[in-house]
Every structure is written in structure tokens, then in C-alpha cells.
Design goal:
With 308 residues, the chain is α/β, with parallel strands linked by helices. The protein contains 8 helices and 13 strands. It folds into 3 domains: 137 residues, Nucleotidyltransferase, domain 5 (2-Layer Sandwich); 59 residues, 2-Layer Sandwich (Dna Ligase, domain 1); 93 residues, Nucleotidyltransferase, domain 5 (2-Layer Sandwich). The strands form 3 sheets. A 5-stranded mixed sheet has the order 3-2-1-4-8. Strands 11-10-9-12-13 form a 5-stranded mixed sheet, with helices on both faces. Strands 5-7-6 form a 3-stranded antiparallel sheet. The radius of gyration is 19 Å and the shape is globular. 34% of the residues are buried.
């Protein structure tokens, strides 16, 4: 259910930002206005252990300038940060989740021995995906350093903006297409954007498998991409006793669409359905060409979280 109001979404990535003022029409988010800024070098270097913002003055000026171009008095901003700034994983919990705090304590206990950072230094949140038999549950866990979150939030607060949600790019990009995908069937959704490969597998409307892998900002090596996709599918198949998705959906930015299509056909034997982004440009209130669409999709997804 979407409410008829406007909201802001901001994506910060390695060498640029995208700011979107979004609304909703017929249950789909649309772009009211947008502003983007790109730079010849990195302004952000995503890391779980170290400071992310390497050019604070440049980033601060870019956010301020892009916000001014949106001509809005809205201050609350849903923020999208690179996936490599944190970690997302599916965790099986063998005990009933009675309340949020008890669930957080149990997740911390499960992760404490297997995680490279001090778990007490991490901001941790989770969402119950489904309840299984005997009180167990499958939960989606997100981890990010408290210092990293503060770094991004403080930047917005300095500019008198109010960070409402902070989420990872792969999920915000998926959010743009989620209402158009039929995940009631056994389905695979893959995205390749800003050097990051994301693999989502759904069954009966529930997320069953998730993996994000940063492949680098340079041209993607087809052999490596095939290995990463095949590895993810093999891990999932082993978990599920040989099951494979029946439907394949994907989004790719840039010119790698045909390469990804052929790799998916080879890896899983199914012709993928590519996400249609032309409607996003045609539905925007501000004029937008097709080349601009990949720049603003993740920010639009972040904005749509506040519309739901």
C-alpha cells in the first residue's frame, strides 16, 4: 500500500550521488524531480572497518547542490549506501522470536564466533522472513559499523537534512522492481550494477537465498561473472536438495545485458526476463533520457521505502 505523498531518496556511491524526489501513481513510485553528480575519482570507499567518506568537502557540496535543485522543503531522506559498507545474510534461528530485543540477542550470539569485527561495535537489525515448524524462524540480518552509519548520517545532519532509513544499494534497487515481479513462483532475481552482483532467490513469496559480491568497477570479466552466478546457484541447490528456480528476472546497468543473458541461459537453462526501465523515464515529471535511468534507480528505490 502506498500513500499519496512525496519523499526523498539519496544514493551515495563510489564516485557520485543521486538525489530523487519521488511520488506514487497507481501503486508505482515515480520520479518527481532528480539531480545527479558524478566525479572523476572516488569520493567514497566502502568498508566495514574503516571510514567510508574520503572526500567530505566534495560530498557535502554535492549533496547540498543536488538538494537545492529539487526545490523541496522536505528534509527527511532515505539513504542508500554501498553494499560493501556492511553485510547482509540469512540466518536460521532455532528458537521462537518472542520480541525484537530477544531476537537481536540471539542473532548476536550466533554471529559472535564467526564474524571478523567486534559484534558490539556493529549496528545490527533483522527482519523475520518466515516462521518454520517447531518455533524456528528464517531471518534476514543486516550488519554495519556504528561508526560508518554515523559518518553518513552526520553528513546529512550537517546539511540540516534528516536521515530516516539507511539501507544497502542492492535492496533499494530490488525495491524499484519488486511490485512488478511474480515471486510467488520459484524465482531468481539478479542485478549487476556499479560493479556489484546481487543474487536473490524466492520461493512462495519468501526470500530463500541472498548473496552480494563486489566484482570491481572496471569492465566485468565474463568468466568470473559466470563463476559467481554458478557458485551461488550451486550453494542454493545443495541447500535445497537439488531445487532450481523456474523463473529468472534480472537488471543490468550499462552494456552488459547480452553477456548476462547468455551466461544465465548457460548457467541455469532459462531465458531471463529483463526489467523494463523505460516506463520510469516516461513516468517522470522531470524530463529524463534513457542514459540517466541507471543513475537514479537506486535512489528511487530508497525513496520508495518511505512511500510504503
Amino acid at each position: 500500500m502506498f500513500f499519496n505523498r512525496k519523499t526523498l531518496g539519496l544514493e551515495i556511491y563510489n564516485n557520485g550521488i543521486a538525489f530523487v524526489l519521488a511520488g506514487v501513481k497507481r501503486s508505482f513510485p515515480y520520479v518527481e524531480r532528480y539531480a545527479v553528480a558524478r566525479f572523476p575519482g572516488d569520493i567514497v570507499r566502502a568498508s566495514m572497518k574503516e571510514a567510508n567518506i574520503i572526500e567530505p568537502d566534495v560530498l557535502r557540496a554535492a549533496i547540498s547542490d543536488c538538494y537545492a535543485k529539487l526545490s523541496t522543503k522536505i528534509k527527511r531522506v532515505a539513504l542508500s549506501i554501498p553494499d560493501a559498507a556492511g553485510r547482509v545474510m540469512l540466518v536460521n534461528m532455532e528458537m521462537p522470536v518472542k520480541d525484537k530485543q530477544e531476537g537481536l540477542d540471539h542473532v548476536r550470539w550466533k554471529l559472535k564466533k564467526n564474524f571478523p569485527l567486534d559484534i558490539s561495535d556493529l549496528h545490527l537489525d533483522y527482519q523475520v522472513i518466515r516462521h518454520d515448524g517447531a518455533g524456528s524462524a528464517l531471518v534476514l540480518v543486516s550488519l554495519v559499523s556504528r561508526g560508518v552509519v554515523r559518518e553518513y548520517e552526520d553528513m546529512l545532519l550537517e546539511l540540516e537534512l534528516e536521515p530516516s532509513f539507511v539501507d544497502f544499494a542492492s535492496f533499494n534497487l530490488y525495491r524499484v522492481f519488486s511490485s512488478r515481479l511474480d515471486m510467488q513462483e520459484h524465482s531468481l532475481y539478479i542485478s549487476l550494477s556499479r560493479g556489484s552482483l546481487s543474487v536473490f532467490i524466492f520461493q512462495d513469496g519468501s526470500l530463500e537465498f541472498y548473496r552480494n559480491k563486489f566484482l570491481g568497477y572496471n569492465e566485468v570479466d565474463p568468466a568470473r561473472l559466470f563463476r559467481e552466478i554458478s557458485s551461488s546457484l550451486l550453494v542454493y541447490s545443495d541447500m535445497k536438495g537439488g531445487l532450481k528456480p523456474r523463473n529468472v528476472f534480472c537488471y543490468v546497468s550499462g552494456e552488459s545485458g547480452e553477456m548476462l543473458r547468455s551466461l544465465l541461459v548457460e548457467a541455469i537453462g532459462i531465458e531471463p526476463v529483463f526489467m523494463d526501465t523505460v516506463a520510469i523515464a516516461s513516468g517522470a515529471k522531470q524530463q529524463m533520457d534513457r542514459e540517466t535511468i541507471p543513475d537514479i534507480l537506486t535512489a528511487l528505490g530508497a525513496a520508495s521505502r518511505s512511500l510504503s
